[in-house]
Amino acid sequence: MADTNFYKLKVKDVQTDTENAVVLSFDVPDNLKETFQYKHGQYLTLKFMFRGKQERRAYSLCSSPSMDKDLKIGVKRVFKGLVSNHINDNITVGTEIEVMPPQGHFNTPLDPNQSKDYFLLCSGSGVTPMLSILKTILEDEPKSQVCLFYGNKSENSIMFKAELEQLEKRYAGQLNVVHTLSRPTERKEGGVFGLFSKKVVDWDGMKGRIDARNIKDVYTKYHRGNTPVETFMCGPEGMMRTAEDTFKALGLEDKNIHIEWFVVEDNATERVSGSTGAKATVTMNGKKVELTLEANESILDGLLRIDEDPPYSCMSGACSTCVCKIVSGKAEMERCLALSDEEVKKGYLLSCSAIPTTDTIEVNFDV
Questions:
Q1: pTM of the model
Q2: Are residues 80 and 158 in the same domain?
Q3: Which CDD domains match (predicted)?
Q4: C-alpha angle 212/215/218, rounded to 5°?
Q5: What is the count of structural domains for the chain?
Q6: Which residue from 102, 192, 225, 303 could staple onto 38, CB 3.0 to 4.6 Å apart?
C-alpha cells in the first residue's frame, strides 16, 4: 500500500527555467530517504493552505533516480492557477512544503540487456515526466534509443531547453530531440523608417502542432526496423488521443502505449445519473468510517465533507492517488483515466469520480 501521508520537506533550490516555469529541488533528510525513493515518471503531491482551505496539486518529477541526486519537480504557471502561481511567485530556498511520497505508474521496467526504441510525445509542461523517463532510460538501458517529440508555442516556452541540448550531445546517437512550434517567434526586418518591414521567422525546425502526420514522420525516421517500440505521451487530451490512435495504427499494442492524463478536458466526464445517495462504509488507515452520501456525490467528496482525510491529489480522475476497492455494492465512475479495464473489473475505483449506484456500498482504501 502506498504511503499517502504528508511530510515537510525544505526547498533546497529554485531555478527559473522559462519566464513562466520554475524547477524546485527538495532537501530530503536521511530519515526520509527510503520513503522518498522513486521510479522514473512518478509524481509528487504537494499540499498548501490558502485562507484556511486545503489545496493539493500533483507535479511530475523531472529528476531521474539514476542520474540526479536531488528530488526535482518542474512547475509551469497556469492561467489563474492558485498553486502554480504561488509556487512561481513565492516559493524560495528554505520554504517548507508538505509533500506526499512519490506515486504513479507512468514507467516501464528497464533492463540493461534489452534494446528498444522509445518514443516520448509531449507538449508544454508535459515534458516534465518525460525528462525523468528519458534520463533513466539513457543511463539504465544503454542499448535502447529515445526520441523525444516535443511541442510548444514558441522558443521561449520550451522547458528544460538547455538540459535537453546537453543531454542530446552527451548521448549522441542514443537520444534524438525533435521540437515543433505552433507559433515561432517573429521579428520585423527591413523597411524604411519602420514602414514596409517584413516578418521574419528564425526558427528552422518543425512547425505546427503534434498530429498524426508528423507522428508518423518522426516514427519512420527514428524507428530502427524491427526493434521493439514503447511510447509515452503527456499533454492535451486531444493530442494524446490522436497519438494513441496513430501508434495503434502503426502496430503497437496497448501494453506498450503509456499515457499520463494530468491534462484533461471537460468532455472526458460522463455524468452518472439517477444517484440519490447511498450509505457508505469506508475502511481507511485501519479504521472504518460510515457516512451517508448526498445525491450524485462521489465517495471522496463525501469523506471530505465530513472532515475525514482520505488520500487524493488531482480530483479529476487522472491520477491514482485516491484509488480504493469495492467490498460490496456497485458504483460508476464519471471519469476514469488512471485505471486499466482489468483493474476496474477487479473492483478498483477512483474515489474522486465514483458515484454509488446501489443503496449501500463498502470500499477499502487500504489496498
A1: 0.87
A2: no
A3: fer2, PA_degradation_oxidoreductase_like
A4: 155
A5: 3
A6: 102
